Amino acid sequence: MSPKPLIEYLDSLEDPRLESKCSHVLSEVVFMATCAMMCGFDTWTEITLFAQEREKWFKKLLSLPCGIPSHDTFNRVFAILPPESLKSIFQEWVQDIIGNEKVTGQLAIDGKALRGAGKGRGNKTIHMVNAWSTDLGMCIGQQKIEDKSNEITAIPKLLKLLELEGCLVSIDAAGTQTKIASIILEKDGDYLLAVKDNQPKLCNEVKQLFQAHWDNSPTDEQGPAFDEQFDKLHGRKERRRCWVIAVDDSLPLCQKWKAKIVIAVQAERTLKNKTSDYVRYYISSRELKASAALKATRMHWSVENHLHWILDVAFKEDQLQARAGFAGENLAVIRQWILNMLKQNKSRSLSMANKRRLCCLNEDYLFESMALFNK
């Protein structure tokens, strides 16, 4: 658990409002909203209802100089609060959770759209790029994709905020850019990048290498350069095969990327008597055996299964329509913070949706998750 309560982190938020027009304490507004969202109350009206119904115990924790804010006040505060300020204390909380240890293992970088925030005339969908630690099972950073831009510009900004020493950073093909690879290497990390047609020359070089390898060694499926896995779940059968080849002078483009290995993963899936077969290609700056490469390529998708999917299912993120100013981006950070806090609280084995329900039903569990007291 975090060494200090959530409210103490929020106290360090810089207030963008005019002091003469402030009726409510900034940190208290954000704290009440976070409590409400942790308990499953997500819209401004719901957040206000929760705060009003829990006013007695909020008064035990907060000063509330002007009582409970209105839903318009909650909206305005989050709309003008600079996201970088909230992200900064989120990073501080993550570092306190980790302690003196560095984040190691694999970091999966992937983008997600906040579809609800784009509903309505003239509104644009907000896209966030998230960093997911597969070892910690938590989001450790996020960056909004600016309007009229894409992940290529957002990923470098996110990487520069993170400690990457010793990490294997995995990114889908959208992030397969020399600048991104260079940033990872400069920060003493290693990359695992998907190779697709957005880098046609690199993709062609890797494809030709593996095609020649398969043509010459169609039965060569033993040793550290090959591995395979079989899965059977919910009526779906899957066979995954992985080949790894070291980069040498025959791969000049891969050498330019400072890659040490190239990887091919073939997935054969059978569901309801229908079989699909596809091959994905990767380059990596870390020397990996086929078994480790197969695991890493699969672990990348944990950012989808354990972060993005939960945000959509347990938090209904795609349905939420906070559109004013910075509100959508700020609430996205709060949701990821809540997700991390609830994952850190392992006193009860529950789904994320039920953890939120339990926070609403059990004040001790809510306070424990926020480190307002420790058991």
TrEMBL record:
Residue ranges of domain H repeat-associated protein N-terminal in the record: 7-94
Any matching Pfam family: DDE_Tnp_1_assoc
Domain Transposase IS4-like stretches: 107-341
GO molecular function: DNA binding; transposase activity
Single biological process term from Gene Ontology: DNA transposition
Protein name: Transposase
Annotated organism of origin: Shewanella benthica
Lineage: Bacteria, Pseudomonadati, Pseudomonadota, Gammaproteobacteria, Alteromonadales
